[in-house]
Amino acid sequence: MRHLASACEAIAGTSKKLHKIAIVADYLKSRTHREAEISAIFLSGRPFPVWEEATLQVGGSLLWRLLGELAEKKDDATLTAVYRRLGDLGAAAGEVLPEKDGQGLSVLEVDAAFRQIAGTRGASAKSALLRDLLRRATPLEAKYIVKIMTGDLRIGLKESLVEEAMAKAYGVTLKQVQRANMLLGDIGETLKLAAAGRLANAKMRLFHPLGFMLASPVESAGEGLSYFPAAAVEDKYDGIRAQAHVSEGEVKFFSRTRDEITESFPELPSALAGLPPDAILDGEIVAWEYPAELDQTQEIVDGPSTDAGESKAMNLGRARPFSALQQRLGRKKVSAKMLRETPVAYLAFDVLYAGGELLIDRPLEERAGILDELLAGNTGIYHRATESPRKSETAEGQGNLSFELETQAEEVKVASVIRAPAFRTSSPEQLEELFTAAQARGNEGLMIKDLTSPYTPGKRGKSWLKMKRELATLDVVVTAVEYGHGKRIGVLSDYTFGVWDGERLVNIGKAYSGLTDAEISEMTQWFLEHTTEDQGFHRLVEPKIVLQVAFNNMMQSDRHDSGFALRFPRIVRLRPDKSAEDADTIERVREIYASQPTDKKA
Ligand code: AMP
Fold it and tell me: Looking at the predicted structure, is the pLDDT value of residue 305 above 50?
């Protein structure tokens, strides 16, 4: 550990990337393979490989207490002053701990101690192990032991530089190292293969999460299609990214930080357990609103299909806001009530492994086809929560991936894996339409993906683009309402709204999407009770209800008495916190109109 700590000091002492790489390479070569393997993990700033679930569970306060106890000067004020000056506990340890005569520790001993600490429960037992470790360490070693423990190495070394150093040390190409590390998710394991000249043997391992492919932002539909000619376009769901590993009925979900999160979503594994033998999927876990009136075999068509190809799959339900999902995050135990009240769905949008083959190098077009096949049969059919237990023959019989999970004697819970609907387009106009539709469904915007691109774990490039334009919104007052169409036939779901022009409300638009079924039913009741003029289908209502509406742009128009109309208006939310007087004015409307780019002022 003495050599590693000295190398870290030297790395911290230079800002030159090549110099840092050279120091790491020399250090790795000077060690035994086993030591170099552990060191590679430590140098990437972690006590354990990324894929491992082991955590030290040692808090800052325990470290603080031990440093106070072991410090040369044992008064709290000295430690506080040193900590304030240096700003990190590791550096403070290096300064306050006494020098020793002994040999110090080897990296293998530090690794063994870390594993022992991780495997021990209870603060006092952990504290004893840690005390022993810090006692045996020299101050410089302790400095880096603590830095690794707190994940705060701060020597300007990223894992990518360790990869470069490894390539240099063992005379292999950076590409080979990166590929092996990507597949293994373990820089130590990668080093082992590099040192033995066996990098080509690196194989992806199920239940060891791969890195996630990331997206770059775009500002407009035009830009969204400027990097590649044909795109797969999906809604951008506001949930949490999750990689699903499936093997012989076992299913685990991993988060973007590659932590296992299966426990928080106990209803999801069985939805995937039926996948043919082994698979890795990429997708988003979303709080999901299942359409209440849908029975297990029915499909409903909600609104007109757009030319851009709105699919029936959309009618499986819709995503709820992230705030709904939040209650489900980080839980070890999920109550039956929570399963019932906040159901989730896994919106799968990619497949990385299936049929015994790693698919990441195949173009998205092919991966999408494989994913469609894997999940074929589950769209449009699922089981709704019911009060009585039901066996799942239908699910098996029809080969779909919906499932039922008995959470309580008299209850059946439901979850689904849904193939995230993907559209093909190469036209910015269609992309605009899809964007509007995605936002109207309550999603953040769109993901635009190059159909020819491979899946590049851990990389943010231009093959995946995200479009989530922030649009101006207006607070408006509902002046008139109408009954809806389709499944909204019996409810007042179409709202005409206005803004203030002096003392008068002038209409500016009409919207019928954005509220939940529960909100619409509540509003229907309110509007029925507060109708000022019943014109049959159309009702004028008391101008009390404030809505926040979003839109793509604004036009001058004589359709409404304000002289303006909103393009693609949609309700963001009800604003019960605002009274009608607080709504926006025609002056604000003129301001927004004036601030629009000229090409939008139709
Ligand atoms: P951001 O978090 O804004 O950088 O956007 C990227 C994130 O969007 C991803 O990491 C996913 O969690 C999420 N996301 C939602 N829908 C999709 C989708 N259809 N494809 C890829 N990522 C998605």
Answer: no
455 C-alpha vs ligand 1 centroid, how far in Å? 14
Q: Which of 216, 234, 235, 237 to mutate to test the pocket of ligand 1 (most atoms within 8 A of CB)?
A: 237
Domain ranges, ordered by start, for the chain: 2-160, 240-419, 472-595
The CATH classification of domain 472-595, taken from the options 2.40.50.140, 2.60.40.10, 1.10.510.40, 3.40.640.10: 2.40.50.140
CATH superfamily to which 2-160 belongs: DNA ligase, ATP-dependent, N-terminal domain (1.10.3260.10)
Please report which confidence band the pLDDT of residue 378 belongs to, taking 50, 70 and 90 as the band edges. Answer: low
Q: Active-site residues: which are they?
A: 236
Which of 466, 467, 468, 470, when mutated, tests ligand 1's pocket best, judged by the most ligand atoms within 8 Å of its CB? 466
- 257 CA to middle of ligand 1, Å? 14
Residues with CB under 6 A from ligand 1: 215, 234, 236-237, 241, 284, 349, 420, 447, 466
- pLDDT exceeding 90 applies to what percent of the chain? 53
Residue type, 489: I
Name the residue with higher pLDDT: 276 or 160: 160
545-584 as b/e: b if 16+ CB within 10 A? bbbbbbbbbbeeeeebebbbbbebbbbbbbbeeeebeebb
Model confidence, pTM: 0.67
CA 283 / ligand 1 centre spacing (Å) = 8
Q: What CATH number labels 240-419?
A: 3.30.470.30
Give the distance between the most distant pair of CA atoms in the chain.
95
DSSP string, 137-180: S-HHHHHHHHHHHHT---SS--HHHHHHHHHHHHT--HHHHHHH
Atom of ligand 1 at shortest distance to CA of 350?
A: 20
CA of 530 to the centre of ligand 1 (A): 42
Give the single-character DSSP code of 560. S
* CA neighbours closer than 13 Å in the CB half-sphere of residue 515: 23
The single residue listed with the structure tokens 């509406």 is 549
* CA-closest residue to ligand 1 atom 12: 241
Task: State pLDDT tens for residues 449-466.
Answer: 999 999 999 888 899 999
Q: Which of 336, 412, 411, 240 is nearest to 403 (CA)?
A: 412
